[in-house]
Amino acid sequence: IINRFIPAPPPEFQHGFYELMNTQYRNAAGNVPGAAFDSSNPCAFRVDTIAPYAVASSREQPPVASFINAPPGTIINNAFLVNQGGLEFGFPANTFGPQTGRFEAGDRINVYFSPVMDPRPEYLVSGSGVPMLPPPAISTFFLPATQIILSGLYYLFYTITDRAGNVSRPSFNEFRTVALLEDPMPLPIFLPL
Known about the structure:
Distance between the termini: 91 Å
Strand content: 25-35%
């Protein structure tokens, strides 16, 4: 086996399908090429430079994820977390119309449960990502109660990374209130004089 690096044409390979063929030449009488049987069969390969939910000219936002065990209006407090053990999220199947942005095997969902609405590494809760299931299946992720430690308004959103490493735009978000502190107890007013 001979390994040979083939640089991409400037500036890079464009998104699409290509064939690679190897032709061997024999050094005979002034570097005359060998016969046609010295060429390999073509080997097809694909270059993917377009993210999920995208086409070459635009990028769409994936649809909103859902809180499976916390319907709208649910306050996520200590009692809820003890009862449920955490939060379960559901992610809709990728049914994007154009082929370039559709689901493909190897797509992974990066889940964010965050007090801010943009993807920051410190709020990524899914580690290396959740494998995305093929349509029409809905992918799920369970966030254990031990990872929910602060109170406030928290947004659920995600990005999708395809096998080539292209990352989608952040999805539309859903939110819930996390209230891990007990409600304050009213005490008599004291005015030091």
